[in-house]
Amino acid sequence: MRHYQRDATLNPAELANLAGLTPATCARRLDKLHVHGVIRGNRAVIDWRVLGYEVEVSLRITLDKTQSRAFEDFTDKAKTIPEVVEIQSFLGRVDLRLSVIARDMQHYQQLYRTAILTLPHIADIEALMHVARLKSDEILPL
Length: 142
Known about the structure:
By secondary structure, the protein is of the alpha+beta class. The protein has 2 domains: 2-35, no CATH class; 55-129, Lrp/AsnC effector binding domain/regulation of amino acid metabolism (RAM) domain (Alpha-Beta Plaits, 2-Layer Sandwich), CATH 3.30.70. The protein has helices at 2-6, 12-19, 23-35, 70-78, 105-116; strands spanning 55-63, 84-89, 96-102, 122-129. Helix 2 crosses helix 3 (23-35). 13% of the residues are buried.
């Protein structure tokens, strides 16, 4: 798994060579990891900055919890905004965090006014402008 998570393009023979296994054993183990949900899939990681998205904003959202469907209504609508690339939920003062990307500040302002602020049941919103990504690693310490 340590080798596979660093390079998921390795075929079973290449992976087997690195892990000191036979290709058949390696293929069986990979199949088991997929079947048991340990490996959920392989994906392409796209650098959205290369595609012209220069602004990233983290929005901390507190919902009006007097509304019984506040969470469901909000997340259902937020999922329809293509520029919302991540939604996280929390326990505590902040209920949700949205990660929003935009081409520039003008595009972000337009998104904020026409899409974000129209989301239902917002009690409070705090915007944090992304400056730098100091660490972004999905590799587990195996």
